[in-house]
Amino acid sequence: MSKVTKIILIFLLFDILIIGGYFGYKALSGGGSGDFEYEWIQIDAYYTPLDDIEVFIKQDAEERDMLPVLVKNYGKDTKILRKFRGKHFAGPTETQIKLKYRDLETWHLVELKYTADAGREVQRAILYVYEHQQWKVGDSGTIAQ
Q1: 19 FRET partner, CA 20 to 30 A, in 4, 11, 53, 55?
Q2: Structure pTM?
Q3: pLDDT at 11
Q4: What is the mean pLDDT of residues 87-115?
Q5: Is 87 helix (H, G, I), strand (E, B) or coil?
Q6: Cβ–Cβ < 8 Å for 145, 113
Q7: 3-state secondary structure 5-71
Q8: Helix, strand counts (H, E) of the chain
């Protein structure tokens, strides 16, 4: 074999190892999407909230007599926020939320499921904003799949 052929073969083997390692890593890490699988949590009268947004949701559901409520809390996940479609926002960024709510301290995106008066199941996404020392609904809508 000539020197040039040996160099080309070494280069090709190196490329195959790098590409194989990359796709092997993607396969072993679940596709490498980086998306966290969020789970539904049932909030009822006996549920102990884990954070202040869950306290607010539980109190609001108790006042409206909507318990139990299933909650999927996305928190401040900007990937999910970009899929949010509401009345005021469509795929917003954190900057757009801060422009609308000038005194914004933090925000959370939450998906709720509950049974309405007529017995039908309602599922909606709610963007909660925290400003002036209290939580409030910033927008409601759905999360595009």
Answers
A1: 4
A2: 0.72
A3: 81
A4: 93
A5: coil
A6: no
A7: HHHHHHHHHHHHHHHHHHHHHHHHCHHHCCCCCCCCEEECCCCCCCCHHHHHHHHHHHHCCCCCEEE
A8: 4, 6
Please tell me the number of Cα atoms within 13 Å of 139 on its side-chain side.
Answer: 21
Structure tokens at 36: 């966290």
Angle at 63 between CA 61 and CA 64, to 5 degrees: 65
Residue 118 sits at φ, ψ, to 5 deg, of -80, 5
* 36, 61, 101, 104, 130 from 96: Cα distances, Å: 24, 28, 9, 11, 15
Cβ(71)–Cβ(43) under 8 Å? yes
- CA distances to 12, 31, 95, 111 from 91, rounded to whole Å, are 43, 24, 12, 15
Distance CA 69, CA 102 (A): 30
